[in-house]
Amino acid sequence: MGILRLSHVDVRVPDLDLATAYYTEVMGLLEVERTATEVFLKCWDETDHHSVKLSYAPRVGLDLISFKVEADEDLAELESRVERYGFPVRRVSRGESVGQGESIRFETPSGQLMELVREVERVGGLLPKVNPPPFPPQGLVGIAPPRIDHVLVTAEEVGEATRFYMEVLGFRLTEQLLDGNGHQIGVWMERSHSPHDLAVVTGANGGLHHFAFWLDDWDHVRKAADILAYNGVQIDVGPTRHGITRGNTIYFFDPLGTRNEVFTGGYRPDPDFPTITWTEDNIGRAIFYYEGDLNDRFMKVHT
Ligand SMILES: [Fe+2]
Fold it and tell me: Which residues have C-beta within 8 Å of that of residue 132, sequence separation ≥ 6?
């Protein structure tokens, strides 16, 4: 019961054609549907309608983060919990949002618009569900990740935001980064038994640091770096490894300046996983284990 996993990330782009070209030809997502001002994209192994939505807007930024819930009664239960916490909730009726049924939306204490949705149109993946081959179909272009993985947002008060995500929405804390006074300056939380579905680091309220796509192994990360470099995509950091999450990673920017990540590895936390703590004097190794240092661009976020 409760939140199952990330459903989709909706971002604003000032150049819809350029963004679509990058996300389909370099990132290798599939275009599912398009309106005059929106493009809906999914990864090849995802079966739901979309995992990324691009919307035309004059300024780059985050529209919303959508998580999928498991059961019909979860929407009403989480709606009342969010309202009891003091945050107004808006019901979005079926048909109001392309590719999905009823949902609820609210602003979180970290200032992002969050959506919870139960019913998403099933469009199917590229592999059959009966006797499929154990590898991607032929003919994919670009990096072609099998699925979206997680999102990292910024908050002025990480501890306050974390209380909301854990106590109200039921996220479990896998790792935390503490400053010298023991205050949380970064948290990594999960619902899907992965190292993180949602992470929060100190920064402006409402900010999107990055969203990440899953790759199946390190060899695919190496190949992704080849594709990014060949296409002239600005790589931010990597290929490298995170101390936190233990994942292998590349950070890079889409042509409008939104940071993307490809991610693999990590571990599989059960719901009773004891939280791992990092201290600020180890922040470099916590974020980029091989470099041992944050780059100057790490704090660049869109709000
Ligand atoms: Fe990440």
Answer: none
Catalytic residue, candidates 50, 209, 210, 302: 210
Q: Which residues surround ligand 1, an ion (CB under 5 A)?
A: 212, 261
d(CA 49, CA 190): 23
Which of 175, 183, 181 is closest to 158 using CA atoms? Answer: 183
Q: Do the Cβ atoms of 120 and 100 come closer than 8 Å? A: yes
Task: Report d(CA 30, CA 255) in Å as an integer.
Answer: 18
Q: Which of 49, 220, 242, 302 is catalytic?
A: 242
- Asked whether residue 191 carries a pLDDT value surpassing 90, the answer given is yes
* Confidence band for 161, pLDDT divided at 50, 70 and 90: very high
**Side-chain-side CA neighbours of residue 152 (13 Å):** 27
- Both tokens assigned to 228: 């990014």
Q: Are 186 and 174 in contact (CB under 8 A)?
A: no
Q: List the alpha helices (DSSP H) in 116-178.
A: 158-163
- What distance in Å separates the CA atoms of residue 185 and residue 246, rounded to the nearest whole number? 19
pLDDT at 77 over 60: yes
Calculate mean pLDDT across residues 102-128.
Answer: 97
In the chain, the domains with their CATH numbers are 3-117 (3.10.180.10), 147-299 (3.10.180.10)
- Which segments of the chain are extended strands (E)? 3-13, 30-34, 38-42, 52-56, 61-69, 90-92, 103-107, 113-117, 147-155, 172-178, 184-190, 198-202, 208-214, 235-241, 247-253, 259-265, 276-279
Residue 295: the pLDDT is: 72
Which one of the listed residues 8, 49, 50, 196 is annotated catalytic? 196
Phi-psi category of residue 27: left, alpha or beta, with phi > 0 → left and psi -120 to 50 → alpha: alpha
Write out the two tokens for 48.
């739901």
Cα-based angle 201, 182, 303 (whole degrees, multiple of 5): 15
**CA quadruple 220, 226, 231, 234: dihedral sign:** positive
